[in-house]
Amino acid sequence: MKVGRGLGRALGACVLLAMGLLLTACNSGPVRRVSEPSARLQQLSVRADGSWSADLRIENFSSIPMRFDSLDLTLQFGDAPAGHLLAQPAMSIGPESADVVTINLKPSAAAKLAVADALAGGRSIGYSLEGRIDATPDEAKQRSFEIKRTSALSPAPGLPGVLR
């Protein structure tokens, strides 16, 4: 009989220990993960005066909100540098969310020709973004993130002068 009581006490102690560990795990809260953000061109509109309007999609992959303070990205189409996308959006983006900032740009002559050729031919055109985004994670200090992205834009059907 003493063996049975000892086993019962050991089992009871294990159950209490397991419940204690479970409560401790629940008490730690959600994981606060800061991940590298991303940026990409969502839309590029060619204006009548030759300037461009670039809709830049900024993606926050972190598990916490981040305030995107500034960005400095070099935009290039093929081998033609288009210019710098400079902005200070000072906007907050929630966890695992995205938002768009519109930036006006006076592109280089070579980039204007490359984009005009793609639009006239109804073809896609490859682009690259490279530079940095400065962002402040919720309740933390500002960090600088390096951005490198290559992708392509295609003419938007029914919208002259627009690439998406």
From TrEMBL:
Domain named Late embryogenesis abundant protein LEA-2 subgroup: residues: 56-136
InterPro entries, per database record: LEA_2
Classification via Pfam families: LEA_2
This protein's name: LEA type 2 family protein
